[in-house]
Amino acid sequence: MNKEAALSVAERDFILDALREDVRLDGRSADQLRPLTLSFGEEYGHVKVQLGKTSLIVRISAEVAKPHDDRPFDGIFSIAMELTAMGSPAWENGRQGDFETYVTNVLDRVIRHSNALDTESLCVLKGVSCWTIRADVHITGYDGNLIDASCIGVMAGLQHFRRPDAVVKEGQVIVYGIDEKVPVPLNITHKPLSVTFHTFDEGKLVILDATRKEEQASEADVVIGLNNAGDVCYLSKFSGSPVDAMVFVTKTTVALEKVKELNGIIDKALQADLAKRAKGGLAEQARAENDRLIG
Amino acid sequence: MGGPIASLHPLSRADGSASYKCPATGSNVLGSVNAPIELPGRRDALKPEDATIEVFVKPGTAPGGVGERHIEGILRGALGRIILGREKGYPRRGVVITLAVVGCDNIARGSSYLPILPALLHTSILALLSASVPLSMTFSATVLAVDSSGEIVCEPSSTDAAAAASLHVLAFTSQGHLLLNESEGRFDFDTWERVYERALAICHGTSALGSDGDVAMSENVDAQPLEGFVRDTVEDHIHREYAWKIDAA
Amino acid sequence: MASSATAPTAPPALSLPPSQFARLQPHAYLLAHLSPPASSQQPSIRANGRAPSQFRITSANTGSLTHTNGSAVVRLGDTTAVCGIKAEILHTEDIASWSVSHASSPSAPNKRRKLTNPTEKPGEDRQDGSSQAEDDDDNSYIEDFSLLVPNLSLSTGCAPGFIPGAPPSAHAQSLSHQILSLLHSSRLVRSEDLQIWYQRPNLGPEELERHNEDEQMDVDSAQDGSGGVASEVREIKAFWVLYIDIMIISLAGNPFDVAWTAVLAALRDTKLPRAWWDADNEAVVCSDLVSEARKLSLRGLPVSSSFGVFEADAASGWRAVIVPDAEEERKIAESDRKGIQRRWVLADPDGYEEGLAQERVCLVVDKVQQNGKIVIVKLEKNGGFAVDRKQMKELVETSVRRWQDINQILKEC
């Protein structure tokens, strides 16, 4: 199946007519995000993202592995996402659909290919051992805009995660447990996020952060990946009907504004979590983190 | 340590869902149930008179592998006897149970899945209850480790489990039947009988035991039997959901 | 209660051949065999002619595949498995976690994996008196570096419904995992058998060599100094990895027992060539002398026995599910007293019986050579309510008898 039940004609018309009058079903304006909440688990790198009714859990894990032969100085970073029946009854377990491939691909390009995580910093011993960082995205509820929500989750997870400290002694890598030595934050070079727009009425109407029903009623989508500095790291118009080129120009500005807003929310949530951890007697880590944020 | 923590219906899209956290073993599982649901992709596997039960286990920080397929088989076997798949609306449809391990130490390939099995079982039964899937009875499960000196450790932590001589997972139905037993390691039959007694006491409380309860039982008297835990979780949830009605009355 | 009605009347009313009856009404067919009408004077017997606790005829043949290090063909009735073991060399430098140690783990100082004590030579200490700690460390090698890699495939055409080109089914994957976890939990293979060592030359040349070595080696020599200058230094340079491939070429029920017996027989047959690290060539060298190859020394002989539970009332569940409550249990107990059996635990179920039995029990037992004590290595029971403690005890006894049989068969092959 791997496809949501189709919208009825009446429902589609209702959504479209409302949009023509600049009204969205949940009362948002065209360029408004749904409320975003981030919460962190006990472990480092365990993030829960709730964007409207879309919810997901990201877990970051680190492991010592052998680097790829052709890149002995680089660590390995991978993002894994599997759509299960937990997120939506329309998704079948254990079967990869087009949608899954598409979302994983966008995530890969926005975060991994833009080098948001400095993989060279993951090298432990040249050609022998490096860190493998793995981000697992578990979709727990799907109500549209999976790409943006996943990006937020992975980026927040990477910033929250601390890997165990490792030192090389006599050609032997010694990994210190989290409780033995202050764990190390990952080296994040920049903070790219994606903003997805959906177009209606031959590209005349453009909204962002569409819900599942709005996605189904839309004609095409445009994904823009940006960081805080306004560098574009991903731009796509993957499928659907043609979109006016000007949409890209005008909406990039909107996207930048949204990325800054989202990164602000992430930073705030991270700081709140750190403060909570510091209270729990982990003041040491908070200092390290503050140094990093200032620097 | 404290007992397990569970909540019903934390997810919005699935028909039923539950989250379960056991502080002792450190396992944290999120489960969802979609039932009854059409499974067009598996048409040839559908049974004419019975529901098809599908279990999918998704590890937290690793790709799924043979270990997951094995544990899915175990869960399907146990749940298959509990779910009333012949009730109206269920035959030729699927009961899809998806379990995601959201917090626990990673399970490497080939290593034991037993420490987390009770959490998976409890999550599934709670999620099935939350999805209102007809069930013949409920069950409760526990994991016990026997260390090299023959001492029984209840709900072992991952280090305890790794050091144990044998590991046992037992599940008892609400009627007191042994529904599932998975034991591995080296042990003799007497040890297994002691483990059985102890597990029955944990799941059903000491009252379910014969008069010949041994000394080890006494430390469990204060703990709530697990069977009651499933019941209480559902009761609490109903209380909250029907607060409007209860208040009005 | 359709079943109990058909069962007594079935034999006289039978107007179609038994094979068709077996297909149309499998449950009633098996039930009629197991509980024949009192008037017929026939003994209770399974449809395949076996007594409930009787296993199928088992035969094993080892060493039939010449390009493997060890192989076996095991046949259990109509279920046949072929197992081939191929040993490959894994260099420690190719193991990512080899050079990694966790500061928190107690064995951290040992992580260098060198023996400085000349009296302690791994690979030669085969007595069971080896210390527990050594055993634990031993086992972690096999698990940590996955030195045993079993893979089971249900080959095309082994039973109807196995089509060519299909990915490994969940069933095959689950069986592979069961064999792997049983190999780990039974600690059948000793990791010392799989280690390939480098014996550093003694004294003079060693000292000379060290002068030219880098700083890292100096630290080593400082460590070694404590053990005396003359101590020999041994280092693990590589491991043998055993790829254990099992192919079920004919499937008629109970694949696990057959697969496990095949693995067992093949491991007993496995011979590894003598191998050592050659420092000059920086490579592992194997001796091609057959006389130097040695067999694995396995820990014990865990034998697996599987059972299926056949329930007389399963047919009445055709419309309604029987919930075994107190009332039901009482009825079963009562009928037991009257000598009417309602549940049968069938050893080694064939394909036909497996389809009728929801409840499964799998027991793996071993007998310790020295004291004859019975050790259970794995006990699994799933899918039903019939087998309780009392029944389990009987099953353990049956498994012990089975252990004797398999032991005999493997000795002879």
Tell me what you see in this structure.
The complex is a heterotrimer of chains A (295), B (249) and C (413). With 295 residues, chain A is of the alpha+beta class. Chain A has a single domain, classed as GHMP Kinase, N-terminal domain (Ribosomal Protein S5, domain 2, 2-Layer Sandwich), CATH 3.30.230.70. In chain A, 32% of the residues lie in helices and 28% in strands. In chain A, a hairpin with a 2-residue loop joins strand 2 (46-51) and strand 3. The radius of gyration of chain A is 20 Å and the shape is elongated. Chain A starts with 8 loop residues before the first helix and ends with a helix. Chain B has a single domain (5-248), classed as Ribosomal Protein S5, domain 2 (2-Layer Sandwich). Helices cover 29% and strands 27% of the residues of chain B. Chain B is built from 6 helices and 9 strands, in the order ββββαβαββαββααα. Chain B has helices at 66-80, 117-130, 158-163, 189-204, 226-241, 243-248; strands at residues 5-8, 16-22, 27-37, 52-58, 94-103, 139-146, 152-154, 166-173, 178-187. In chain B, the strands form 2 sheets. Chain B has a 5-stranded mixed beta sheet with strand order 1-2-3-5-4. The longest helix of chain B is centred in the C-terminal third of the chain and has 16 residues, at 189-204. Chain B is globular. In chain B, 56% of the residues are buried. Chain C contains 11 helices and 16 strands. In chain C, strands 1, 2, 3, 5, 6, 7 and 8 form a 7-stranded mixed beta sheet that branches. Chain C has a 4-stranded antiparallel beta sheet with strand order 14-13-15-16. The radius of gyration of chain C is 27 Å and the shape is elongated. Residues 1-10, 106-134, 205-230 and 317-321 of chain C have low confidence and may be disordered. Chain B binds chain C through residues 49, 65-67, 69-70, 72-74, 77-78, 80-81, 84, 86, 108-112, 136-137, 148, 173, 175, 177-189, 192-193, 196, and chain C through 132, 143, 146, 170-171, 173-174, 176-178, 180-182, 184-186, 317-321, 323-326, 358-360, 373-385, 387-389, 392-393, 396.
